[in-house]
Amino acid sequence: MKLGTKLTIIFIAAFVINAAVTIIFTMPDANPAVSLVVILVTHAVTFTAAILAVRLIITKPLYRLIDNIKSYRSGYKFKRVDRDDEIGELYNSFASLTAQLDDEKSAQNRIIASISHDIKTPLTSVMGYTEFLKNPNLSEARREKYINTIYSKACDIQDTVLGFDDYLSHNLDLNLKREFTTVSELLNGAADGIRTDAVNSGVTVRCDTGDCKDAQIFVDRSRLRRVFMNAVSNSLRHAGRDDLTIDLTAKRDGDKAVIKITDNGQGVSKDQLEKIFEPLYTTETSRSVAGLGLSICREIVGSHGGTIWAESEVGKYFSVCFTLGIVTQKKTPD
What is the DSSP string of 283-314? Predict the structure, then answer.
């Protein structure tokens, strides 16, 4: 029952009671002195009861909510309440908000811990090999090896920092510059970009737009190109084979285009599939599985109103799959 309905019932009940008592005790045969006392007492009691009811229904729960909000910083955990009025909605909205904040805080802590690990590990190597270079008796061959190792580890640190910057920029600025294009143009453009970037890596790129070749979509192509590149970068990093093949495919599912970026690599176990889109998700303390690239993919696809997921079979393939809405008439969607 809504709050307004409850208050309306309270005030109507008070009015009816007072009116009924007034009518009864103002009859011609009523004792005027007794009638006046009864009417005044009735009015006072109903007025007091109405105030107490309002306090119980509105004021007290609001004060409790204020106290709980003040206690949130101290670790208070909001719990959902079983009320179907506006106060209940307010309580439950705060409960959902604090739960989301707690989840985001946990995610941020994981990101910080993972970045710390991904920087600390190569940094330790850089410091160690730098110390070795101080040895005056070091051979030239070993010196060159140590310098190359230091450079490689420094590049790892740079990749981590740039990836984090990229993640932040995509989360802080997801203003899309949409334009009309077709699924075929999107996939073929992505395939050309992958071939150009991976020209020296021996990667084979194939493209099949299926039954939605000419389907119109209204998207930010530069953002979606990042989805393709991040997914392919993930494949290059974790596929575990030199003869890597990337298949870009699309098929129509009602008013959506289902796009898949598939490699023929070592795949990912089923228990990891739902977690690899988390920022810097790791399966082991010593190895980063997804980094930030797939998390950025999720943000970009979500900003287009699509959904993203992964499919895989260990030892056979790994796919990043996502949906985009198909525009039936070429006009800017509301």
Answer: EETTEEEEETHHHHHHHHHHHTT--EEEEEET
Fold type of domain 114-172: Helix Hairpins (1.10.287)
The two most distant CA atoms of the chain are separated, in Å, by 124
Q: What is the CB neighbour count within 10 angstroms for residue 262?
A: 20
The token pair that represents 139 in the structure block: 């051979």
Ranges of each domain in the chain: 3-76, 114-172, 179-325
Rounded alpha-carbon distances, angstroms, from residue 106 to 71, 111, 225, 287, 290: 19, 9, 30, 20, 18
DSSP 239: S
Side-chain-side CA neighbours of residue 283 (13 Å): 13
Tokens of 180: 């009309």
Q: Specify the pLDDT at position 259.
A: 96
Does the domain formed by 179-325 have CATH 3.90.320.10? no
Taking the model in full, what pTM does it have?
A: 0.57
- Measured between alpha carbons, how far is 147 from 153 in angstroms, rounded to an integer? 10
Q: What pLDDT is recorded for position 291?
A: 61
Domains 114-172 and 179-325 share a fold: no
* Regions in the chain scoring below 70 on pLDDT: 1-4, 25-31, 34, 114, 117, 163, 166-174, 199-200, 280-291, 329-334
Quote the tokens at residue 109.
């802590």
Q: Is 202 left (phi over 0), alpha (psi -120 to 50) or beta?
A: left
